[in-house]
Design brief:
Layout: E1 3-5, E2 9-17, E3 68-75, E4 85-87, E5 95-105, E6 113-121, E7 133-139, H1 149-161, H2 167-179, E8 183-193, E9 199-209, E10 218-224, E11 230-232, E12 237-241, E13 248-250, E14 263-266, E15 272-278, E16 281-283, E17 290-291, E18 293-298, E19 301-306, E20 318-324, E21 329-336, E22 347-357
Length: 374
C-alpha cells in the first residue's frame, strides 16, 4: 500500500516473534500541528519556443510604435491577505496550472498586436537554480470579447481583490477592452510540476506587433509555497524470526509497490529532512527482556541508535543525512541487534519518523529574493 505523509511525524509499530523472533507491525501517527505536508515526484521543464515574428526578448522602450503592456498579474491567488501571490502544489495531481494575465495596447491599434510572451524564472535565492530561466510560453490570440467576457471580468475582479489592480484601473480596462477598441486581454497558461523548487518565481511578460517591435516588459511574482510531502509503502516493520545475538535487517528498495521493502519518495517542492527514534522492543510475556539497539542504512550511511543509558524507553532522535532531494525515491534499511541469551517470545516496539523541510545547502546563490519590477 502506497501512502502519502503530509505531516511531521509517523509511528511504525515494531513487533518480533519467537525466540529467534523479532518483528514489527506498523501504524502511522498524524500530528495535526505539522507546518508542512509531504508528497513526491517528477519534474518536467517545458521546452521554450520564441515563436514566429521575432521579439523573443522584451524591448527597451526606444520604439514608439511598439505595443504597451498596461497591466499584468498572476492568478490564482490562494491568500489575498499577503502581498505576493500565494500558490500551493497539488499533492493529488502532477501539476498546477497558473495563469499570466496581460492587458495590451498598441499605438497602431490593438489588431496590430501579434504575439505575447511569458517568461518564468526560478527563485533567485534557491540553489542550484539561482534565478535561471525555467521556460517561456507564448500566445497569439487574445481572449474573445464575447464568449470569454465573464472570464475576463472575473479575472479583473480577482486582480482587484488581490491588490494587483485598483477599482479605477479595473474600470478603465473594461472601458478600453469592451467599449473602446483600444486593448486586448491575454491569458497564458503556466504549468508547474509539484516538485518544482519552492520559493518566489518571477514572470516577465511582453508583447510584439506585426513589425516584431517588442514592448517593455511587465513583471509579476508568485510564491510557490513550501510543501513537504513524502510517499511511503510500508505500514509495519516485521523482522520475522530472529536469533539472539544475530543482527536482523529489513532491506528496502526503490519500488513503492513492495510493502516488504521500505521506500521513501519526495513528492514535495522542498528538500526533506528525516529524523528517527525507536522505542525498545519488549518481550510480551517477560517485560524485563528487551531489544534496545537499532540502526538504519540511508543513502550510503549507517546510523545507530539505542535506548541504553536513556531515562525512558525511547532512543534519542537520530538525524539522517543527506536530506531527500526533490523527486528522489530512496530505499531505507532497518536493523535490530538482539543481545545474546534473549529468551523466546514476541518482542514489540515502535519506530517514530519525523519529517520536516530540509536545507537547500551549498552552493548558495549570490542574490536574494526577487523584487517586483514594472
Amino acid at each position: 500500500m502506497r501512502k502519502r505523509l503530509m505531516v511531521v511525524a509517523m509511528i511504525v509499530v515494531m513487533t518480533v516473534a519467537a525466540i529467534t523472533p523479532l518483528a514489527a507491525t506498523g501504524k502511522k501517527y498524524i500530528d495535526e500541528s505539522s507546518n508542512y505536508m509531504h508528497t513526491w515526484n517528477t519534474e518536467a521543464v517545458i521546452d521554450p519556443s520564441a515563436g514566429a515574428g521575432g521579439g523573443s526578448n522584451p524591448g527597451d522602450g526606444s520604439d514608439p510604435s511598439a505595443p504597451v503592456v498596461k497591466h499584468c498579474w498572476i492568478l490564482p491567488d490562494e491568500d489575498l491577505q499577503k502581498e505576493c501571490v500565494q500558490i500551493h502544489i497539488n499533492p493529488s495531481d502532477w501539476r498546477t496550472d497558473i495563469y499570466a494575465w496581460m492587458v495590451v495596447k498598441d499605438p497602431e491599434g490593438r489588431d496590430d498586436i501579434y504575439q505575447v510572451f511569458a517568461q518564468v524564472f526560478y527563485p533567485r535565492d534557491v540553489p542550484p537554480w539561482c534565478g535561471s530561466e525555467k521556460y517561456k510560453e507564448t500566445e497569439f490570440d487574445p481572449l474573445d470579447l464575447v464568449s470569454d467576457e465573464d472570464e475576463i471580468l472575473e479575472a479583473l475582479d480577482d486582480a482587484v481583490l488581490s491588490g494587483h489592480l485598483t477599482k479605477k484601473e479595473r474600470d478603465e480596462i473594461v472601458h478600453e477592452v469592451f467599449e473602446e477598441p483600444e486593448a486586448y486581454v491575454y491569458k497564458i497558461q503556466l504549468p508547474m510540476e509539484y516538485c518544482e523548487p519552492c520559493g518566489i518565481y518571477k514572470v516577465r511578460m511582453w508583447a510584439t506587433d506585426s513589425d516584431s517591435s517588442p514592448s517593455l516588459p511587465c513583471t509579476a511574482l508568485f510564491e510557490w509555497k513550501a510543501t513537504v510531502v513524502v510517499e511511503y509503502d510500508f505500514t509495519s516493520l516485521d523482522f520475522g524470526k530472529i536469533e539472539a545475538g544475530v543482527e536482523k535487517v529489513i532491506p528496502g528498495d526503490e519500488d513503492l509497490r513492495t510493502r516488504d521493502a521500505p521506500t521513501l519518495k519526495n513528492e514535495g517542492n522542498t528538500k526533506v529532512h528525516i529524523q528517527l527514534k525507536a522505542q525498545e522492543m519488549t518481550n510480551t510475556e517477560y517485560d524485563q527482556y528487551k531489544i534496545t539497539d537499532f540502526d538504519v542504512y540511508w543513502m550510503g550511511n549507517y546510523f545507530e541508535y539505542s535506548t541504553e543509558g536513556q531515562s525512558g524507553d525511547w532512543t534519542p532522535w537520530t538525524e539522517l543525512e543527506p536530506d531527500l532531494c526533490l523527486c528522489q525515491t530512496k530505499q531505507i534499511d532497518f536493523s535490530i541487534h538482539p543481545r545474546e541469551n534473549l529468551p523466546p517470545g514476541t518482542y514489540t516496539g515502535k519506530l517514530m519518523m519525523h519529517i520536516s523541510q530540509g536545507d537547500w545547502g551549498e552552493p548558495t546563490c549570490s542574490e536574494g529574493p526577487w523584487e517586483e519590477e514594472r
